Amino acid sequence: MxxxxxxxxxxxxxxxxxxxxxxxxxxxxxxxxxxxxxxxxPIVIVPGVYESWKFxxxxxxxxxxxxxxxxxxxxxxxxxxxxADGARIVADYLDKHDLRDVVIVAHSKGGLIGKHVMxxxxxxxxxxxxxxxxxxxxxxxxxxxxxxxTLRSFSPRDATIQALARETAVNARIVSIxxxxxxxxxxxxxxxxxxxxVLETGGHFRILAHPRVIAEVAAMAERS
Length: 224
Known about the structure:
Structural class: alpha/beta
Mean pLDDT: 90
Low-confidence stretches: none
Strand content: 15-25%
Number of strands: 6
Strand order of the largest sheet: 2-1-3-4-5-6
Helix content: 25-40%
Order of helices and strands: HEHEHEHEHHEEH
Shape: globular
Largest sheet: 6 strands, parallel
């Protein structure tokens, strides 16, 4: 019973966090170009499904304050396109701006897009590594219950999910961060061969604000 109550508490806090930041993102008029200044390693933000970069703004601000140039890709919109299309947008952006030794910081579906770019796209050599937060690398069994194709694409049987699972060579350059309990990814976000960081908390959204996320990004960026 204690574990159930704990998970219910995490779930409630998670959705409260998500609702608050989605509401703020609608009213947010911050110019994404403002974050491109900095003399430290370039960071590219790849949000999750139905999220814009504004949903991750606390993380963006924290990284920019550390001196990183943070790149926010407006063409991703709210990230409803297939993973391969999202990866193409990211790869085109990296090529257009000639970015190198890039650290990708991704949330949820963004981790799939990031890995696709690292493993299967023309921009592979431009990326140093990725920190992925609560990403469904093995899919989610809940996806089969969804009505929308965008959400059903997270099924463990989806062709893209399975294709990315076979691309194991890049896993060593990925840090996968996730909580003990994720209401959207019951199987967790462990990725074989990656540096897996399990936080002693639960949630799918609010762990974006966990200090360990910034610490892992900073560590990877310094190595790059």
